[in-house]
Each structure stands twice: as structure tokens, then as C-alpha cells.
Design goal:
- By secondary structure, this protein is an all-alpha fold.
- The protein is built from twelve helices and no strands.
- The chain is globular.
């Protein structure tokens, strides 16, 4: 069952975080910055300042990737203690999402790139030989991810559902509906090609924004908020990478 008072507590704090997310005007203001340094300088004066403070004009692609994964982890870790205790394991499991592609790569290739050794999230999962260590993954709480790489997404989702506590049917239905929405869009991203990717992401963001407001005092609202954060971090990643790798502007 939901504890309404406890979800009111987390909803109020997440609502404040939601108000701090970048708006379309913020992205448009940054669109003209041609270099990484110029983009960061402009971003430090607006809604993105908290997300770009760890980067500099000298940050390379690996620095940016590590930093953005760390921002996601920081966001999850900040949010989890606010949640009702029974829901904390489920939302804590979201910390693994940005690592799934690298874990799949490691499972296929038996090794990870050397820059992984500088990543505070990934380094503890490697053995002395630089290869992914199953005991280390188990020790870090990722035992459910010890599956063939093609099954990794399904294994992650299955473990996430397993962590949902017993709840009212409407609570679980709303969560499943959001999961299905994300899965449909993920499939559309693959099929639609590059030109359709950003319009689809904008559409998904709008759906999540509406659900965040439509489902207060429910876990689905918290999930919708985190989906908004993930989409904004992805958009920031695209803007930063384009400038770091090519030194040119790209619509953000």
C-alpha cells in the first residue's frame, strides 16, 4: 500500500527539483555556442549550472561520459532516502541504467577500454586484469545482471519489477504504463533513424511531464521525474559531445 504522507514528503522535494530542470528557452539560449568552452561558460549562468560545474573546456569525451553518469547516480542517490522505505530498493536499482551498455560490451568482449579505470563507478567492478569481475558485480549488488549481454535489458527490468513492494493495483498499473511508453519510444528511436530521434524524445518528454503532474503521490510520478532528468542529461550529452569532438555548434 502507498503511504500518502511519505509520498507527499518526497513529492514536495521532487517538485522543487522539477522546477529547476532546464526549459526550452535555456536550450535555445545555448544553441549558438560553437565551442565546448563557450557552451560551458553560457551554461554556468542558467538552469544547467549544477550539471556543468564539473566540466571544463579541456574535458574530453571520456570525461564528459563519466561526469554525466555520475550526475545520474548523484540524482538517484539524493532521491532514494526521501522515498518510503519499501520503495527504496526499486528506485536504487535505477543507478545501474547508464552502465548497462558498458556491461554488455564487457560481456561480449571480455574487456573494457582503458579509460574505464578512471571511472569511479566502473573501476570497482573490474578485476586486476581489467576484465569485468562477477564477484565484484555481485558484491556491488548487481548479481541479477550476470546474464548474457543480449538479455541484460530484460534482466535489469525483471529485477526492477521484483523490487516493487506490494501495492495498490492502480500504483502498479501506472508504473507498467510508463514502462511500456518508454519501451515503445525506444523501439521507435531505432526504427525512425536520426531525423526522428529528437522529435520522438521531445514527445516522450512531454508525456513524462504530463504524467509527473497527473500522478502525484505515486511512485509513477517519481519515475516520470527521473525520466525527465535522463532525457535532459541525454540532450546535454549530445550538446557537449558535439562541441568536444568537432568544436561546432548543434541545435540543442
Amino acid at each position: 500500500m502507498i503511504a500518502p504522507a511519505r509520498f507527499a514528503y518526497v513529492q514536495a522535494r521532487v517538485q522543487a527539483r522539477y522546477a529547476e530542470l532546464p526549459a526550452e528557452d535555456d536550450w535555445q539560449r545555448l544553441a549558438g555556442a560553437r565551442t565546448l568552452g563557450a557552451f560551458l561558460e553560457e551554461a554556468r549562468e542558467g538552469a544547467l549550472r549544477g550539471w556543468v560545474k564539473g566540466f571544463s573546456a579541456l574535458s574530453d569525451a571520456h570525461d564528459l561520459d563519466r561526469g554525466l553518469r555520475a550526475l545520474w547516480l548523484e540524482g538517484v542517490e539524493d532521491l532514494v532516502p526521501w522515498l518510503p522505505r519499501t520503495w527504496r530498493p526499486a528506485f536504487d536499482w535505477l543507478r545501474w541504467l547508464p552502465l548497462l551498455a558498458l556491461l554488455a560490451h564487457a560481456a561480449r568482449r571480455q574487456s573494457l577500454p582503458t579509460w574505464v579505470a578512471r571511472d569511479s563507478q566502473l573501476h570497482p567492478l573490474l578485476g586486476p586484469d581489467g576484465v569485468l569481475s562477477p564477484p565484484a558485480l555481485i558484491s556491488a549488488g548487481g548479481e541479477a545482471l550476470l546474464v548474457p549481454p543480449d538479455d541484460l535489458g530484460g534482466a535489469w527490468l525483471g529485477e526492477w519489477r521484483r523490487r516493487w513492494p506490494a501495492s495498490d493495483r492502480c500504483v502498479l498499473v501506472n508504473l507498467e504504463r510508463l514502462v511500456a511508453l518508454v519501451q515503445r519510444h525506444a523501439g521507435a528511436f531505432v526504427q525512425g533513424g536520426a531525423e526522428a530521434a529528437w522529435p520522438l524524445r521531445r514527445e516522450l518528454r512531454e508525456r513524462m511531464r504530463l504524467d509527473f503532474h497527473r500522478l502525484p503521490l505515486q511512485p509513477a510520478a517519481i519515475l516520470a521525474f527521473l525520466a525527465l532528468v535522463a532525457l535532459d542529461l541525454e540532450r546535454l550529452r549530445a550538446a557537449l559531445m558535439q562541441r568536444a569532438l568537432f568544436g561546432t555548434q548543434e541545435a540543442v
